[in-house]
Every structure is written in structure tokens, then in C-alpha cells.
Write a structure and sequence with these properties.
The protein is of the alpha+beta class and about 250 residues long. The protein has helices at about 5-25, 30-45, 60-70, 75-80, 85-95, 120-125, 170-175, 175-245, and strands spanning about 95-105, 110-115, 145-155, 155-165. The chain has 8 helices and 4 strands, in the order αααααββαββαα. It is elongated and about 145 Å long. The N and C termini lie far apart (about 190 Å).
């Protein structure tokens, strides 16, 4: 039979551990406390006893914005009452949608990213009084362009007409692919025109040669007929002389 001292010691130890556990739980924030409870549950009831290997899915506000953000929101998006859409709309309303900021890192392939300006960029003049290219701070020689922005979003192909301010160097990047396509088309047209011109020249040379050969053949025929006529006249004269000899 256990003594009174051992029972009291066990009760004190249990109470002390309970107080330590409660103090530890109170020191955690809501998210860490949630993770600990889930880990304890999985470790006690789950098949895997090592709770440190359990990775719980975490969805942050940044993930919510990436999923629900739209370059141009529709009425259906605004009517969605979920907290995710309310968070996205609150962020969308803070953007300034007069001018865009461009990312021209892949301009040679015709891929240019556009986004709206933030409050900090509006205050600094970025995109209006400073070149709208993300990696350019040029302030001179700026020009405003209306860009037909074609993009793929939420499984759909969309288009939007937006304004973009760029310097001369970045404007060349903006129209780089179209310029290259135009040069390639002009090169193909010139090559095709040259091929047709050479072909027509060869055909005209062939026609001239055939015409010359025809003229030569006609000349030979005329000369041969003239020779035959002369020989016939000579034969007639000889026959007349022969007749005159027979009948003096």
C-alpha cells in the first residue's frame, strides 16, 4: 500500500506540470496555440507518433491576394460576400488606376507585365513624371502611350486599354517585337519581289531569244525561196536559147 507521502508527492508533481503547461499555452499566440493543439492531436491519435514531421497547410493574406486579385474587377467580383474577396477589394481600392507600371525584363519575346501604381509611387511621380518602366528612372523625353494590354487571368484571355508613360529608350522596348515583325515582313516582301522580278526577266530573255530564232528562220526561208526563183529564171532563159537554136 502506497504511503501518504508518496501520494502527496505525486499530486504535487501533477499539479506543477499542469501549471507549467497552462503557463506555456498562455504564452503562445492564437496561431502557435492552434498548431500545438493539432500536433498534439496528431501525435496522440495519429499513426505517426513524431509530431515534428507534420506540416500543416497555411494560407496567408498574401496567398489570398494572389488568388483573388484581378487587374480589372467585374461587378460579379464585387458582389461576392466572402472575406477573401472583401480583402482583395480593399487592396484593389487602394491602387491608382490612371497610369501603369511596366516590367520589361522579357521585352524581346513580347512579354511585358503591367500593374497599377501604389500610393508610394504616385507620391514619388513614378509612372507619370518618371519613366513607367520598373527598372528605369529617366525623367526626360517622356511620352504617354495607350497600350492594348492582352493578358491571361483566371483561365480567360482578357484585354484592357491602359496608359503608360515611358522614355524614348523604353518606348523602343515597348514596340520592339512589332518592329521586328515589320522588318521581317518587309524582308520577305523584298525577297519575293526580287524573285518575281528575276523570274520575269528570265522569261523576257527567253521570249527575245525565241523571237530572234523565228526571225532567223524566216530569213533563211526567204533567201532559199529567192535562190530557187533565180534558178528557175536561169532555166527558162537557157530553154529559150535552146529553142532559138533549133528554129532559126
Amino acid at each position: 500500500m502506497a504511503s501518504f507521502r508518496s501520494i502527496r508527492s505525486a499530486i504535487f508533481d501533477r499539479e506543477e506540470k499542469k501549471q507549467q503547461y497552462q503557463a506555456h499555452i498562455r504564452g503562445l499566440n492564437a496561431f502557435d496555440r492552434h498548431k500545438k493543439f493539432l500536433n498534439d492531436y496528431v501525435g496522440f491519435y495519429g499513426k505517426e507518433k513524431n509530431s515534428t514531421d507534420v506540416k500543416l497547410p497555411v494560407k496567408t493574406d498574401h496567398d489570398t491576394l494572389r488568388e483573388g486579385y484581378r487587374f480589372i474587377r467585374s461587378e460579379e467580383d464585387d458582389m461576392n460576400p466572402s472575406w477573401e474577396q472583401r480583402l482583395v477589394k480593399r487592396y484593389y481600392d487602394k491602387l491608382f488606376k490612371e497610369y501603369c507600371i511596366a516590367d520589361m525584363s522579357h521585352y524581346k519575346s513580347g512579354k511585358i507585365g503591367l500593374r497599377w501604381r501604389t500610393e508610394k509611387e504616385v507620391i514619388s511621380g513614378k509612372g507619370q513624371f518618371i519613366c513607367g518602366n520598373k527598372h528605369c528612372d529617366e525623367k526626360d523625353g517622356l511620352a504617354s502611350y495607350e497600350v492594348n494590354f492582352s493578358y491571361f487571368e483566371a483561365g480567360e484571355n482578357k484585354q484592357a486599354l491602359v496608359k503608360l508613360v515611358t522614355c524614348e529608350r523604353c518606348a523602343e522596348k515597348l514596340h520592339y517585337k512589332k518592329q521586328k515583325e515589320k522588318e521581317e515582313l518587309d524582308r520577305k516582301l523584298k525577297k519575293e519581289y526580287k524573285r518575281k522580278r528575276d523570274q520575269s526577266k528570265d522569261n523576257s530573255d527567253t521570249d527575245e531569244e525565241s523571237q530572234r530564232s523565228k526571225v532567223k528562220r524566216k530569213g533563211k526561208r526567204a533567201s532559199s525561196s529567192a535562190v530557187s526563183h533565180e534558178s528557175d529564171d536561169n532555166d527558162d532563159e537557157d530553154f529559150d536559147k535552146f529553142l532559138e537554136g533549133m528554129f532559126p
